[in-house]
Design goal:
Radius of gyration of chain A: 19 Å
Strand content of chain A: 15-25%
Number of strands of chain A: 10
Shape of chain A: globular
Mean pLDDT of chain B: 90
Low-confidence stretches of chain A: none
Number of helices of chain B: 17
Strand order of the largest sheet of chain A: 6-7-8-3-9-10
Mean pLDDT of chain A: 89
Shape of chain B: globular
Largest sheet of chain A: 6 strands, mixed
Distance between the termini of chain B: 45 Å
Order of helices and strands of chain B: HHHHHHHEEEEEHHHHEHHHHHH
Low-confidence stretches of chain B: 394-401
Largest sheet of chain B: 2 strands, antiparallel
Number of strands of chain B: 6
Strand order of the largest sheet of chain B: 1-6
Structural class of chain A: alpha/beta
Order of helices and strands of chain A: EEEHEEHEHHHEHEHEEHH
Oligomer: heterodimer
CATH class of the largest domain in chain A: Alpha Beta
Radius of gyration of chain B: 24 Å
CATH superfamily of the largest domain in chain A: P-loop containing nucleotide triphosphate hydrolases
Structural class of chain B: mainly alpha
Number of domains of chain A: 2
């Protein structure tokens, strides 16, 4: 029984079957990659997992509880954090504040009127945020206006913000899309480090095979909304069906 | 001090000093001099400065922090005024219950309107609030006449019950608003040589309430709650995927700013116990938007500056008329004088809106951060000069060593 269980999920947009009978099981503390050609339904699947879309049929269970019909913030409070394709951070706020918000969210829940306390006097939160920034090598940037940073730094910050909540499942949507090679490698190193140091399950949707094969322990190949194969990276590399559907001539 | 850091404490102290000394500061010109018409230190106008200051501080908590631009905040101001006048009619002429009721009623009203309007964001939210405010205005103007007295406006009469007070005074007139006996309209005049300073009870009550409102706003700005409100403005997607429900945060900000508006409305009625529907009209809602943007949205002091600026123009520029212009330009040859007056005339008197509009345009284009940004730029200029001097000195001293 995995921490995330997707069973018989179907999603149709008009005449297009975006997801057809998707079954997926992500084992706890593993790194599971979902790959597939454009239009395979990867993003649709991710949006189902985080509560942005509700599937027509099927079930999605996280740690024994259904996530269907819950709002994104409720799903996050269950322990699922998401990293977006283009980094979503609080651009108007400083790096430190960006880091403090998820810690507040973890501590105080989805809403609390703490309007009289001073945020810079919340010692525990500030310390935790700073130690995380230290782990990310960003502590010297803590007073930066976060929108002014490079894309790689924004991505780093976004991943850090997710970690600040100590999630049980981290969902990554093409975390290296549109990044320079150096930034991509930095991100891979960061994710490897996270995987090694923490009890965390990672599910990653990715286009870049370099990223997938450096991180994933299991890979599911999605094609036309349906899982084609699921196996270890070594086996996937040599799988004839995968070559045909996805890697094509290039492999 | 007061749970604030150094910078905020000094800001609070400066604002406190300015408001407490306003009767002096706003009356720099001797009463009989030609410049006396630029004096703003009379009770009526000073009250308006601080009351609209409260209104704008509250509006800024919503607009400056969460970015939700409400075009219907005058509705809460009007509701506050009506509540206060009803309290004067039914209970007593003491302003305390009146102000409390106006804050509470405006808060409840804001909760209702906010709950519906906050289902949308951006321009749709603005339009929804505008629609609600215009609805309130029209209701107050016509259908709700039994409560609002329609176009005449709600006024005190000699027949009001005033359970805890008197319906009429011994000499048969309507009693005046007071704070435990201290009459709001009471003014102490201090004549110092040619100067004439006026200290008004109503002004000082409003000023103290404005300082409290300002202090509370600072606390909100610096709190985790304030940080969440800025997060609402910055990125709601990230907020929702960080386990935070942005809706109640925005609603709380909306209700708080509605209560500020209610407080301002209640104070207005306490200074002058009548309430009319025009207080709820969209022009009044637009005015507070102008004040906040002109002063600097999202800054602490900006809205107060903006409110003072606009109210000063409204009351001082609008009073300059043609004969005053003739006096000013009398030293010029006739032809030139008439041309100049013809040129300046559209910008004064009833044309003060034109002046304000041009100033607003200039500020928005050249100082997008409002008057506060202007102040900061000037400050930076001075600091740079100072540091330049310092570095000059150090570079001069180095070769000598």
């Amino acid at each position: 029984m995995g921490i995330l269980e997707v069973k018989n999920v179907n999603k149709r947009f008009g005449g297009l079957q975006a997801l057809g009978d998707v079954n997926l099981s992500v084992a706890e503390n593993s790194c599971h990659a979902i790959i597939g050609p454009n239009g395979a339904g990867k993003s649709t699947l991710l949006n189902v997992l985080v509560g942005k879309l509700i599937p027509d049929t099927g079930s999605v269970m996280f740690d024994g509880q259904s996530v269907l019909g819950r709002k994104p913030y409720e799903i996050n409070q269950m322990g699922i954090s998401r990293v977006f394709q283009t980094p979503e951070i609080f651009g108007d706020l400083s790096v430190l504040e960006n880091m403090m918000i998820p810690i507040f969210a973890k501590r105080d829940g989805s809403f609390r009127m703490h309007a009289i306390e001073r945020s810079d006097q919340e010692k525990e939160v500030v310390e935790k945020a700073e130690s995380l920034l230290e782990d990310l090598n960003m502590v010297d940037k803590r007073h930066f206006h976060s929108a002014s940073m490079s894309r790689g730094d924004k991505r780093r910050l976004e991943i850090g913000m997710c970690l600040a909540q100590s999630p049980r499942l981290l969902l990554l949507d093409e975390p290296t899309a549109g990044m320079a090679r150096a930034d991509t490698n930095n991100t891979i190193d960061l994710l490897k480090q996270i995987k090694d140091e923490r009890d965390i399950t990672i599910a990653i949707i990715e286009h870049d095979m370099h990223v997938v094969f450096s991180l994933a322990e299991r890979i599911t190949v999605l094609a036309q909304g349906t899982p084609l194969v699921e196996d270890t990276p070594e086996k996937i590399k040599g799988h004839p069906k995968v070559r045909e559907a996805y890697l094509g001539e290039a492999a | 001090m007061f749970g604030l850091d150094k910078k905020d404490t000094s800001l609070l102290i400066i604002v406190a000093a300015l408001t407490m000394l306003a009767p002096f500061l706003l009356n720099p010109f001797p009463a009989e001099s030609a410049m006396a018409q630029f004096n703003a230190g009379y009770p009526d106008l000073m009250q308006r400065f601080v009351i609209f200051g409260i209104f704008a501080i509250g509006f800024n908590i919503l607009f400056g922090l969460t970015g939700y631009l409400s075009f219907g905040h005058a509705a809460f101001l009007g509701v506050g005024s009506y509540s206060a006048v009803w309290m004067f009619k039914l209970l007593s002429m003491n302003v305390v219950p009146a102000i409390l009721l106006s804050v509470v009623v405006a808060g409840v009203f804001a909760l209702l309107i906010g709950f519906v309007s906050l289902r949308r964001s951006g321009i749709y939210f603005s339009i929804l609030t505008l629609a609600f405010a215009q609805m309130s205005f029209n209701l107050a103007y016509s259908v709700l006449t039994p409560i609002t007295n329609g176009e005449t406006g709600l006024q005190l009469t000699l027949n009001d019950p005033r359970v805890l007070g008197v319906s009429s005074t011994a000499d048969g007139s309507i009693p005046v608003t007071n704070l435990f006996g201290a009459e709001m309209r009471a003014t102490y005049e201090l004549a110092l040589g040619p100067w004439n300073f006026q200290f008004n009870t109503g002004y000082y009550l409003s000023a103290i309430l404005m300082l409290l409102s300002f202090y509370l706003a600072i606390r909100i700005f610096r709190s985790p709650f304030g940080m969440m409100l800025r997060a609402v403005k910055s990125n709601q997607t990230r907020m929702n995927y960080t386990g935070l429900n942005s809706r109640p945060y925005a609603l709380a900000a909306f209700v708080i700013s509605g209560m500020y508006a209610g407080l301002a409305g209640g104070l207005m009625a306490s200074m002058d116990p009548l309430a009319g529907a025009e207080r709820m009209q969209w022009t009044a809602s637009g005015e507070v938007v102008l004040m906040t943007i002109l002063g600097g949205a999202g800054t602490l002091i900006g809205p107060v500056l903006g409110a003072g600026f606009i109210k000063y123009f409204e009351n001082i520029f609008s009073k300059i008329n043609e004969s005053i212009l003739h006096k000013w330009f009398a030293f010029m040859p006739d032809g030139l004088e008439d041309t100049l007056i013809a040129l300046v005339y559209p910008f004064i008197g009833k044309g003060w809106h034109l002046t304000l509009g041009i100033l607003f345009m200039l500020v928005v284009i050249f100082l997008p951060g409002g008057l506060v940004e202007g102040g900061q730029r000037i400050g930076r200029l001075f600091r740079r000069k100072k540091s330049d001097e310092k570095s000059d000195k150090s570079s001069q001293s180095t070769p000598a060593e």
